[in-house]
């Protein structure tokens, strides 16, 4: 079966939560509709959980932790291998769910959203073969041990991808987890819970509790039996979680907002890098925290850049996400759609030059949360569209008069999640990358690397995901003095 709504309805998942190895009915009866943004219709209803369900899931995770944390790395790797295999077997089912719950184009869901999510599971599995959970330093042993019960709070924009980016390394480390997916895009999370169950995950090791941030998110953040919170979301949400977690002194890893620069150096090949830069800014309709939505270009080449950006945007096909030729589907939810429209209007009011796009739906679309890919030029660094995260298909082109000014503009933001640099002189490209205050920098549009740590400077958060560093987030460090004899 490739219809996720029919499948989840038939098996009765949507009104339940998953805890201690079984699907369970919540104590309350509150429900929320899941809206397909392409049609603006409610396609499913899920149960909203609360305190009792969080208590049940946390207690199950706490009971399961001692045994799971002591399993051999090979045993944990075997589970992750089975989970990875099941996700890939059900790629079409997951892809259809992502299209229904957040408007992702079906081709993009098949080619990116699901396979990249599966890659996080593969990386976590492979790391277990070599990770030094015990190492020697003189006569002292350095032990890396699972931190404990982890509350994982994931967003609506990359639903499955962010689930696997957290669940994979947490389980690899030996932690047990309680997952709170976004209530706006929960269908892929239900399918993932099914995969965990069918893969033979021990009871209590993985738990799923649906609900809102102010209820379930806060209950996890304040719970004394939760040892760590990992959240991907807005900077505002990350601050609230950190504040709620502070009294219990739990670890909080935050992957938050961004306003990433794309520095196009004077010697860059514009014909190559401008189309790539526009596409990167509008990947997933710009609903990516690391999207390079500030393009910094030499003032002398501004007209060339505008022409290339306009041509690139004209090649996008916005529309029905179920059509395979569609490149950009619908904005994931009404609140975000309204935010994007507001920021486009602000850009016009601020006096930025509208190169292409603008407010409203693309021509020919009268319903659905469809936005026009929009490019502004002659943007000043003090404009709202240059400073605020829009989280939509809106690109701001900022001219600069020298490389020193370009670096200054790139760092003129409260965020520091990602950055891009384009140029042909690799010595200069590397030098500029080294001066940008961001957790991940892409040079000349490299391939995605699931082993590359990802996380932010400044108000983009703290901690790292992906690769070895992502695994280490879920570990404590213990020094055992005298563990080895002198002759060892």
Report on this structure.
The chain is of the alpha/beta class and 488 residues long. Helices cover 40% and strands 20% of the residues. It is built from 16 helices and 22 strands. The strands form 6 sheets. Strands 14-15-16-13-12-18-19 form a 7-stranded mixed beta sheet, with helices on both faces. Strands 9-8-7-10-11-21 form a 6-stranded mixed beta sheet, with helices on both faces. It has a 3-stranded antiparallel beta sheet with strand order 5-6-22, with no helix packed on it. Strand 12, helix 10 and strand 13 form a beta-alpha-beta unit. Helix 8 runs parallel beside helix 9 and helix 10 crosses helix 11. The mean pLDDT is 97.
Question: What's a quick, concise take on this entry?
Answer:
The protein is of the alpha/beta class and 488 residues long. The protein has helices at 4-10, 51-69, 73-89, 91-102, 106-127, 159-173, 187-198, 213-222, 235-245, 270-281, 302-314, 334-349, 384-387, 403-410, 426-435, 467-472, and strands at residues 17-19, 22-24, 31-36, 41-47, 134-137, 140-146, 149-153, 176-180, 206-208, 228-232, 251-255, 261-264, 294-298, 353-356, 374-377, 394-400, 415-416, 418-422, 440-443, 457-458, 461-462, 475-480. Strand 3 (31-36) and strand 4 form a beta hairpin.
């Amino acid at each position: 079966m490739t219809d996720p709504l029919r499948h989840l309805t038939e098996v009765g998942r949507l009104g339940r939560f998953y805890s201690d190895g079984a699907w369970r009915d919540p104590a309350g009866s509150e429900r929320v509709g899941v809206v397909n943004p392409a049609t603006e219709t409610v396609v499913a209803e899920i149960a909203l959980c609360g305190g009792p369900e969080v208590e049940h899931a946390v207690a199950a995770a706490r009971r399961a932790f001692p045994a799971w944390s002591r399993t051999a790395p090979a045993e944990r790797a075997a589970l992750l291998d089975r989970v990875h295999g099941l996700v890939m077997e059900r790629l079409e089912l997951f892809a259809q769910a992502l299209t229904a719950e957040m408007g992702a184009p079906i081709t993009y869901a098949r080619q990116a959203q699901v396979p990249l999510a599966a890659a996080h599971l593969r990386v976590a599995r492979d790391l277990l073969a070599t990770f030094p959970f015990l190492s020697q330093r003189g006569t002292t042993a350095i032990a890396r041990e699972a931190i404990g019960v982890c509350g994982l709070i994931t967003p609506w924009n990359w639903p499955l991808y962010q689930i696997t980016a957290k669940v994979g390394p947490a389980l690899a480390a030996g932690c047990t987890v309680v997952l709170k997916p976004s209530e706006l895009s929960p269908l892929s999370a239900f399918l993932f819970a099914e995969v965990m169950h069918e893969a033979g995950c021990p009871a209590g090791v993985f738990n799923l509790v649906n609900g809102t941030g102010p209820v379930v998110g806060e209950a996890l953040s304040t719970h004394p039996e939760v040892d760590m919170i990992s959240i991907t979301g807005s900077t505002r949400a990350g601050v609230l979680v950190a504040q709620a977690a502070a009294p219990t002194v739990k670890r909080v890893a935050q992957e938050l907002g961004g306003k990433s620069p794309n520095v196009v150096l004077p010697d860059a090949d514009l014909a190559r890098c401008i189309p790539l830069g526009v596409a990167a800014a509008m990947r997933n309709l710009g609903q990516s925290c690391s999207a390079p939505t500030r393009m910094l270009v030499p003032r002398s080449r501004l007209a060339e850049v505008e022409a290339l950006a306009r041509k690139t945007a004209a090649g996008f096909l916005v529309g029905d996400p179920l059509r395979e030729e569609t490149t950009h589907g619908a904005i994931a939810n009404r609140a975000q759609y309204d935010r994007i429209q507001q920021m486009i209007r602000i850009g016009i009011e601020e006096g930025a030059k509208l190169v292409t796009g603008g407010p409203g739906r693309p021509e020919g679309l009268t319903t659905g949360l469809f936005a026009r890919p929009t490019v502004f030029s002659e943007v000043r660094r003090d404009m709202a569209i240059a400073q605020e995260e829009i989280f939509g298909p809106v690109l701001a082109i900022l001219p600069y008069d020298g490389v020193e000014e370009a670096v200054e503009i790139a760092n003129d933001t409260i965020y520091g999640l990602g950055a891009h640099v384009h140029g042909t002189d690799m010595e200069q490209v590397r030098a500029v990358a080294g001066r940008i205050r961001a957790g991940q920098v892409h040079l000349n549009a490299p391939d995605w690397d699931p082993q590359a740590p990802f996380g932010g400077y400044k108000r983009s958060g703290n901690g790292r995901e992906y690769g070895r560093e992502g695994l280490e987030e879920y570990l404590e460090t213990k020094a055992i003095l005298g563990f080895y004899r002198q002759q060892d």
